[in-house]
């Protein structure tokens, strides 16, 4: 199991004006004890394949895949998604990575909205996913996965069930986003085990979740209060998750994604190190 991390753990969600440089990020990921990294937002790490390969090789790191955020609620955005998938897929293919994950853009939805897409919008989204899957497989032999995420069109189990029924794509399963709404990650992993193509390891702070579920915090306020806590500190039994992956001989990417907010007492590099030290004995 290749232990990996991602630029989002350093608070890097967009390529412009990142908190740290690409090379500093790679230095800190390697120093924290990881062997792999996700690409992060396209344009943060070098997009020239040779330059990226050299930067990774210098630090004994592998590129394990990428996560791309797309506004699925926009019915006219299909061509842009295909263009982005081709651009990212070409770079992943050149580096030997075989997984591209998509997730919905949540910032466009009104707060507290439920059932965020109409049936027509849902069908449009699944059509986009099928078209993107076909492109990636035909051009690059890359598998497409979808990442359920809090405050998007796919966050609850019934929505994930529907997505898996309506498409043939893989699931990028995130333990923290699943547990955020008091859903059971281990039970759901057992239910959809044959569809999980990649894993994001994340945990949830019990007290922040309790306040959010009681209505004392909005979703945004819960995140800013540190809802997604370090792996050793939350309600998800990460050790049991890792045991399940080992029992399955899971061969897909396993990525630590530690949401970082200023409220945290540790910096991104320190959090990455603590998460790695927690995981290494389990792996």
Structure description:
- The protein has eleven helices and eight strands.
- The chain is of the alpha/beta class and 283 residues long.
- The chain has one domain: Divalent-metal-dependent TIM barrel enzymes (TIM Barrel, Alpha-Beta Barrel), CATH 3.20.20.150.
- An eight-stranded parallel barrel has the order 1-2-3-4-5-6-7-8, surrounded by five helices.
- Strand 4, helix 4 and strand 5 form a beta-alpha-beta unit.
- Helix 3 runs parallel beside helix 4.
Q: Quote the CATH topology.
A: TIM Barrel
CATH class: Alpha Beta
Q: Specify the CATH architecture.
A: Alpha-Beta Barrel
Give the H and E element order: EHEHEHEHEHEHHEHHHEH
The average pLDDT is 96
User: Rg, please?
Assistant: 18 Å
- Which runs of at least 5 residues are low in confidence (pLDDT < 50)? none
The N- to C-terminal Cα distance equals 7 Å
Overall geometry: globular
Major beta sheet summary: 8 strands, parallel, barrel
- Percent of residues in β-strands: 5-15%
Total tally of structural domains:
1
Structural class: alpha/beta
CATH superfamily: Divalent-metal-dependent TIM barrel enzymes
Helical content class = 40-55%
Strand line-up of the largest beta sheet: 1-2-3-4-5-6-7-8
Q: What's the number of extended β-strand segments?
A: 8
Number of separate helices: 11
